[in-house]
Specification:
This protein is α/β, with parallel strands linked by helices. It folds into 3 domains: about 160 residues, Immunoglobulin-like (Sandwich); about 250 residues, Rossmann fold; about 90 residues, no CATH class. Helix content is about 25%, strand content about 25%. It contains 11 helices and 22 strands. Strands 1, 2, 3, 4, 5, 6, 7, 8, 9 and 10 form a 10-stranded mixed sheet that branches. Strand 17, helix 4 and strand 18 form a beta-alpha-beta unit. Helix 8 crosses helix 9. The longest helix has 19 residues. The radius of gyration is 24 Å and the shape is globular.
Length: about 525
C-alpha cells in the first residue's frame, strides 16, 4: 500500500489558515476491485489507477432530516453545508491519500470547522452523466460521524469501499411503458465516443387495443427539470391506468426525454460544450421514434412541455424548430431574459454575488407566510462557492455550471465552459456575456419579431408563479411586457401568464388541469383527439 501526501495550495479565496491543521486520509479499498475483469474499475485492472475529482461532503446540522441524509447527496439548497475537493490521478486500490490542504473548499478552510459532523467522500471518475452520486463507476465511503475542533489537529479517515453501478430504467410489467436507447451519430462524432439518446415512452392503453391496429397517435414531448431524467415516464404510464383518465388527460403518446449530460442539464441547445443537442433531437431521435411507433409525423401532432430547466428547453425548441413542434406549454422556465437572470442584469451589473446596492444577491427563497412573505435560504455566493468547491474549472454539473455549459464558449485551456463570472469573487466577464446573448430569448424574439412573433402568439403558452423560488418570474414578466407591446391585441391562443402566489413547486399543481384541457383542445382542433 502506498501512502501519498498531497499538500494542495488553496485556490478558493478562503480565510487565513487556522493555528491547527486537519488531515483527511482517504483509502481506496482493494476489496472493491476483487474479481473485476480487464475492463472494470475505470482501468484499474488494466494497469491504470482511478483519476477524477475527490469530493468530501459534510453535514454539520444535527437531528431530524439531517441525520437521515447522505452527505454526498449535497449540495443542499435549504441550508448549505461544507464541501471540499481535490483532483486525483492514478489512484490505485490499497493506496491512501492524505490531504492537508484542499484545492477548494466551502465555506471556509475546513480547519475552522467545530463540533459534530457527518462526513462522506466520493471519487467522481464518471464522464457520462451529471450526478456524482449516480455516475457509474464512482466510488464512495460510508458516512463517518466525527467531532471536529478548531483548537486541535483533527485526523479524519475515510475508506472508498462502495461503487456506484449503472442505473437501468425501472423494470415494468406494463405493456404501456417502453424505454428507448438510440445511438446518436451527431453526438458520438462530437464527443469522440458512443453517445445515446434516451427516452421513456408512455402509451395510452387504447394504443394496444386490437380495434385500433392502424391508428396513429399524437406525441407529447416532456422535458424534465434540472436533475430529472427520462425515468419519469413511469409516472405517465401509471397515469394512463387510472379509471376515467381519458376524460382528463390528453390521449397522446407521452415521451419523456433525457436532458442529462456530464456538464448538467443540456437544455437541448446546440453549443460548443454540449454539441448539437437540439439538432440531434429533431433530426435523429424524433424521426427514429416516428419510425418505430405509430406517431403522426406532423408538427401539430408534436407538443412539447417542461418545467424549470425543462420549461426553458421546451420554449427554446418551439422557437427554434417551429416546423417540428406545434405547441409549447412552458412552466417556470429558467431565465429567458438575461436582464433579469434571477436577480442580476448580466449586461449592466458588475458582480453576480452582490447587488448594485452592495447586498448579497439572493438565489433561493421560501414562502414563509400566507401573505406572500418570503425568506432567503441561499445566496448566489453560497451557490457559486459550493460549485467552486466541487470543481473549480466549472465541471460540477450543478446549476450555474450547467448554465455556463449551455451558454458559454469552450475554454480550450481547461476543456470546460468559460466562466461567465469568477467563482471566487463573482465578478462578471462581459466578454463571455456577449456569447450568452444569443440565448437570451427575450432579446432574440424582440429583435426578429416578424419571425418569432407568430410563433409566440400562436404556439407558446408560458406560465410562472409570482413568488417563484428562484426569482424566475422577473424574466417572464419582462418577456410579457415585450410581447404585450409588440402584439397588444393578438387573437392567437398563445399567452404569458403570471400566477399569483405560486412558487416554483406549487405552480404546476395550479396550472396542471388547464394545461391538460388546452392540449386536448389543440389536438381536437386538428382531429387528433376524440
Amino acid at each position: 500500500m502506498r501512502r501519498l501526501l498531497i499538500p494542495i495550495i488553496l485556490t478558493a479565496g478562503l480565510l487565513p489558515a487556522a493555528a491547527y491543521a486537519d488531515t483527511y486520509t482517504i483509502t481506496l479499498s482493494e476489496s472493491l476491485f476483487e474479481g473485476d475483469g480487464e475492463d472494470s474499475g475505470g482501468g484499474v485492472s488494466g494497469g491504470g489507477g482511478l483519476s477524477g475529482r475527490l469530493m468530501v461532503f459534510f453535514i454539520t446540522e444535527q437531528g431530524g432530516r439531517w441525520g437521515r441524509r447522505s452527505p454526498i447527496s449535497g449540495p443542499f439548497f435549504s441550508k448549505p453545508q461544507p464541501i471540499a475537493s481535490v483532483a486525483v490521478k492514478d489512484f490505485m486500490p490499497g493506496d491512501s491519500i492524505t490531504i492537508e490542504t484542499w484545492e477548494a473548499s466551502f465555506p471556509d478552510d475546513l480547519d475552522t470547522l467545530d463540533g459534530k459532523a457527518r462526513i462522506q467522500a466520493i471519487l467522481d471518475i464518471d464522464q457520462t452523466m451529471r450526478s456524482h452520486e449516480s455516475g457509474p463507476g464512482n466510488v464512495f465511503s460510508e458516512v463517518v460521524e466525527v467531532e471536529l475542533s478548531r483548537d486541535e489537529d483533527d485526523s479524519i479517515f475515510l475508506v472508498l469501499s462502495q461503487r456506484i453501478e449503472k442505473r437501468d430504467p425501472p423494470a415494468s410489467d406494463s405493456i404501456n411503458l417502453q424505454w428507448v436507447e438510440f445511438r446518436s451519430e451527431l453526438l458520438s462524432e462530437f464527443y469522440g465516443r458512443d453517445v445515446y439518446h434516451r427516452a421513456g415512452v408512455a402509451f395510452p392503453l387504447p394504443y394496444f387495443e386490437k380495434k385500433f391496429p392502424a391508428k396513429y397517435w399524437p406525441a407529447i414531448y416532456v422535458i424534465p427539470g434540472y436533475g430529472g431524467r427520462h425515468f419519469g415516464a413511469t409516472d405517465y404510464a401509471e397515469m394512463f391506468h387510472n379509471r376515467g383518465i381519458e376524460e382528463v388527460a390528453p390521449m397522446a403518446v407521452t415521451i419523456v426525454l433525457d436532458p442529462d449530460s456530464p456538464l448538467g442539464h443540456h437544455g437541448f441547445v446546440d453549443s460548443p460544450n454540449h454539441g448539437p443537442r437540439g439538432t440531434a433531437l429533431v433530426t435523429e431521435l424524433i424521426p427514429h421514434l416516428e419510425e418505430i411507433y405509430r406517431l403522426v409525423s406532423r408538427p401539430e401532432a408534436r407538443l412539447v412541455t417542461g418545467h424549470s430547466s425543462g420549461g426553458w428547453s421546451s420554449l427554446w425548441l418551439q422557437l427554434k424548430w417551429p416546423e417540428v413542434f406545434g405547441g409549447c406549454w412552458s412552466t417556470a422556465p429558467d431565465p429567458i431574459d438575461f436582464h433579469a437572470f434571477q436577480m442580476t442584469n448580466v449586461y449592466e451589473d458588475a458582480n453576480m454575488y452582490t447587488t448594485s446596492d452592495g447586498d448579497e444577491t439572493p438565489s433561493y427563497r421560501r414562502v414563509s407566510g400566507p401573505g406572500g412573505q418570503t425568506r432567503v435560504t441561499m445566496t448566489v455566493r453560497q451557490e457559486g462557492l459550493m460549485e467552486q468547491a466541487m470543481h473549480p474549472d466549472g465541471g460540477s454539473g450543478q446549476q450555474w455550471d450547467a448554465w455556463e455549459a449551455m451558454f458559454s464558449p469552450r475554454d480550450e485551456e481547461t476543456g470546460y465552459p468559460r466562466a461567465m463570472f469568477d467563482g471566487k469573487t463573482g465578478r462578471i466577464d462581459k466578454r463571455v456575456v456577449e456569447h450568452w446573448k444569443q440565448f437570451d430569448i427575450t432579446d432574440m424574439v424582440a429583435e426578429d419579431w416578424e419571425h418569432y412573433g407568430p410563433i409566440v402568439t400562436n404556439k407558446v403558452r408560458l406560465m410562472c408563479g409570482t413568488l417563484d423560488s428562484f426569482y424566475l418570474n422577473r424574466a417572464v414578466e419582462r418577456f410579457k411586457v415585450m410581447v404585450d407591446a409588440k402584439a397588444p391585441d393578438h387573437d392567437g391562443p398563445g399567452y404569458i401568464r403570471l400566477v399569483e402566489y405560486a412558487d416554483h413547486g406549487t405552480l404546476r399543481e395550479k396550472v396542471f388541469v388547464n394545461i391538460n384541457e388546452e392540449m386536448r383542445a389543440h389536438l381536437r382542433k386538428y382531429d387528433l383527439h376524440d
